[in-house]
Design a protein that fits this description.
Layout lengths: L1 H16 L13 E10 L13 E5 L2 E5 L11 E4 L1 E3 L2 E3 L5 E7 L2 E6 L10 E7 L1
Antiparallel strand pairs: 1-2, 1-9, 2-3, 3-4, 5-6, 6-7, 7-8, 8-9
Length: about 130
């Protein structure tokens, strides 16, 4: 009986220690970011103001706030995201490699090698 109780308590302990991904926090990404530049095979007016495009990482939620005509990550809204290493995966299937240097976040689209000219690099400044 004592052995059965020990096994039961050990199993209960293991189950109670697991977490859902609802409260995942990627500390380096956490916070508000404003788009400062975009580099791609697309034509932008040299005076394009990217600052209307903002993203916020809150736990496992990415809040996207876009200018109507520049929706690089998807439409404005709240999205779940996942991170593995330096790879961010969005629910729409798009993936971005990220790097942070100082207060600058760079997102580089993981392009499809079968599609020409789909390269995209986005630079954000931490607010």
């Amino acid at each position: 009986m004592k052995r059965m109780t020990t096994i039961f308590l050990a199993a209960l302990f293991l189950v109670s220690c697991t977490k859902d991904n609802d409260d995942v926090v990627h500390v380096e990404l956490e916070g508000k970011w404003t788009l400062t530049s975009a580099s791609c095979f697309c034509a932008f007016d040299p005076n394009t103001d990217f600052s209307a495009n903002k993203i916020t990482f809150k736990g496992s939620t990415l809040v996207v706030d876009n200018a109507d005509d520049l929706a690089f990550l998807g439409n404005s809204g709240n999205y779940s995201y996942s991170v593995e290493g330096n790879l961010i995966s969005l629910p729409n299937g798009r993936q971005f490699r990220y790097s942070i240097k100082g207060s600058t976040l760079t997102l580089t689209f993981v392009d499809n090698p079968d599609v020409a000219d789909d390269e995209l690099s986005l630079s954000y400044l931490r607010n």
